[in-house]
Amino acid sequence: MPLPLITVIGSLNKDIVTRTSRVPSAGETLTATAFDTGSGGKGANQAVACARLSRSKDKTNLQYACVQMIGAVGDDQFGRELLQSLNRDGVDTRGIKIREREKTGVAIVIVEEKTGENRILVCPNANHTLSPENFTDIPAPYPDLIVLQLEIPLATVLRIIEVANEKGIEVLLNPAPAAELPDGVYKGVTHLILNETEARLLSDTSGDLELQRTAQRFIVLGVRNVVITLGARGAFYCSSAVELGGVIGTGNVKVVDTTGAGDTFVGAYAVRVAKHKQDLSIFNLEEAVSWANVAASKSVEKDGAQNSIPWLDEAFHT
Predict the structure, then answer these.
(1) Which neighbouring-strand residues pair with 55?
(2) Segment-wise mean pLDDT, segments of 10 residues, the chain, 318 residues
(3) Cβ atoms of 237 and 227 closer than 8 Å
(4) What CA–CA distance (Å, rounded) separates 77 from 57?
């Protein structure tokens, strides 16, 4: 039986990272404590998370899924480096277009060392050349799961969800960075993973976020499984199959850098969806969230976005 196929459609960015003791105030100049570059973009990060959490670091044991990435980079050094990095991690990059007259996407990341929290500015560049016209159909063989974010044009994301729904393909949507979505899109989303900020914006909540009520709003609109990540507090989960959701905590974690945690969570969750398809078993939402929590908690112990994403044997000591 062939392995399940996860297709990640989204952004690829070169990360420019500075580390500082604190974030400077308006008009203030500080001396950073460190500087580095790395591979990033929410789409690429999630593809790497899917690939690494499908196998051991020595790549001798492909257990859960094959992973392919669809996106766009510029015809420049950054783009070439991103493709090489994805290939090293075992991601199929044949669906990534090289745009000759575009620059590769760039993310400027500031990490506050005391807390590990980050602030990010993204310049999309080639990522925004992905248009709805590029996705009038999904070629066979169809993936078992499509993973999407919002760092490519929104109209393109909506078109992909529409086509996937027509083909009966499950969609995992991570609506980040947060943007308002039409209510009709949710009926095409099987798995919705979002953080508290995104949940508040998409549910039009101005006060305290009531997790159960917020998740139920998305379920009424058609989503099957909703996960709201809560940072150090873990994640809340709810599904159309059960009346009440629950929270799974993370335990004690030494936080170094949170940059890649959300994308690691999404990738780990996607792998559990793939494993359920491989095993022909009933999908266990609580188990998937617990597994994703462990992987994401492991990622915050290291610097960087993709650099911090663990392999299967690193996260779970298989």
Answers:
(1) 62
(2) 92 93 91 92 97 86 87 97 96 96 94 84 95 90 95 97 96 95 97 95 82 94 96 93 85 78 96 88 92 93 84 84
(3) yes
(4) 26
Instruction: Tell me the C-alpha distance between 70 and 271, whole Å.
Output: 17
Instruction: Find all residues with CB under 8 Å of 166, minimum gap 6, and list them.
Output: none
Q: Which residue has the tokens 């669809």?
A: 70
- 45 vs 225: CA distance, rounded Å: 22
Distance CA 40, CA 62 (A): 23
Indicate which residues carry an active-site annotation.
263
pLDDT score at 138 = 86
Q: Retrieve residue 191's tokens.
A: 């798995």
What token pair was written down for 141? 């063989």
> Which position has the token pair 């308002």?
180
Per-residue DSSP letter, 244:
S
Among 280, 273, 276, 72, which Cα is nearest to 171's?
273
Helix (H, G, I), strand (E, B) or coil at 77: helix
274: nearest Cα among 292, 256, 297, 262: 292
Q: Using CA atoms, how far apart are residues 151 and 2, in angstroms rounded to an integer?
A: 31
User: Could you tell me how many residues make up the chain?
Assistant: 318
Q: What is the tens place of the pLDDT at every residue in 215-231? A: 999 999 999 999 999 98
Name residue 47's amino acid.
Answer: A
**pLDDT tens per residue across span 193-217:** 999 999 999 998 766 789 999 999 9
Helix (H) or strand (E) holding 99, with range, is strand 92-99
